[in-house]
Amino acid sequence: MPAISSSLLRRGTAALAALPLLALAACGYGSEAKDDGTAKIAAGAEKTDGLDSVKIGYFGNLTHATALVGVQKGFFQKELGATAVKPAIFNAGPSEIEALNAGSIDIGWIGPSPAINGYTKSNGKSLKIIGGSASGGVKLVVNPARIKSLKDVEGKKIATPQLGNTQDVAFLNWAADQGWKVDAQSGKGDVTVVRTDNKITPDAYKSGSIDGAWVPEPTASKLVAEGAKVLLDESTLWPEKKFVITNIIVRQSFLKDHPKAVEAVLKASVETNKWINAHPDEAKAAANQRLETDAGKALPAEVLDPAWKSIQFTDDPLAATLDTEAGHAVKAGLLEKPDLKGIYDLTLLNKVLKAEGRPAVDAAGLGTS
Fold first, then answer.
1. pLDDT score for 3
2. Which of 70, 183, 210, 212 has the smallest count of CB within 10 Å of its CB?
3. What is the dihedral of CA 144, 237, 308, 33, to 10 degrees?
4. Is 277 in contact with 313 (CB distance < 8 Å)?
């Protein structure tokens, strides 16, 4: 059976397995989003699929802005009628997968590596990727006094968010392409990889304990605000400068039992992305308002503006790039060669897109038969 390496599983899931979900919430993982009154249930609305609520998970990252804006502007609530939207905020992929498996959330916005890990660990039984959300928004940012060119990264300390996460895999793959050897588990080698939570990476940079970081937005722009320079935008390494950074996943049992609710969420996601792309400044403000509501602090303009510009919002899951990212994890020794056949079910998304007069998106041979 395809599986993540045993060491990665121990580090990524053992602590979570020992904690009840209430403890996770208390630690800030899977914390319930605050109700600021932005999305009220319309008078006379009916429940979708007979459900009282649909529980949606996402990160407080701009790369999850489809969820941020969809909640803030009421797109999800409008499509779900009298079925209440219940958002939950996560800081890490493993905890969101744990919540999905436990039924604490039904649908989630998440990066490709946690989706791959969750699918392979369950032998293809836990989740399906049902849509795309965002591309890009990842950069290598460095201390310009210590690193002036790409070759100068050798011998330096570079932060990534978490062992085996999407950015960690991407950096290890890029380092290997430079001819540098790094032990994936320890992070030691020709470059030292320092796994650091995005929340404390700016402090690590200011203290001088790291020389740079391969991180998603808005962390990259937070570092730039502290004097760092963008050395490489990951999008430049991909065909057409597109690669998946955020997917939409669903618990398979929820998809089977409540397809109308899943379709409603997907319709809302498509509408949200359309609105984001048509009204970028308003959407940026709405995402920031949601971040302030969820985390108690909005992003300053010097961080928000450049971060927002580097992200593309798309309904296409960019499935071929997920398959490539899985290959990068295998090459790094963090994942045994996985069988990803069936990880996608794009049936409902393509139904929504067809109703909009738009072309279907492709699962790159990894869809449900």
1. 36
2. 183
3. -110
4. yes
